[in-house]
Amino acid sequence: ATSALDYENEIIVQEALDRACQNRTTIIIAHSLSTIEKANSIYVFRDGIIVENGNHQSLMTLNGVYAELVQFQQSKFHSSVENHQEKENRNVINDYDQYRMFN
């Protein structure tokens, strides 16, 4: 379950999973779609029914449910990164303002 991890730890876990899955059949149930984008076969379920299947590229080309979910998660991720960067920028400005106050 990598969906609760931050980006850096998700990468570490994903690399470990990639190594563990080499040369074996592996079934992964994922909400975080970055976890499965290297899979040979991806099955997309809606209401318990398979609505799409293929690899990442073919499902993205299909531009259906899977592609919509990937785009949604990517926009959420980019928004999160931007918010983090804005927070870091505010922290730098606050640190600089405090530095100026005392020097």
TrEMBL record:
One of its GO terms (molecular function) is ABC-type oligopeptide transporter activity. This is p-glycoprotein. InterPro entries: P-loop_NTPase, Type_1_exporter. It comes from the Eukaryota. One of its GO terms (cellular component) is mitochondrial inner membrane. Signal peptide: none annotated. The lineage of its organism: Eukaryota, Metazoa, Spiralia, Gnathifera, Rotifera. One of its GO terms (biological process) is oligopeptide export from mitochondrion.
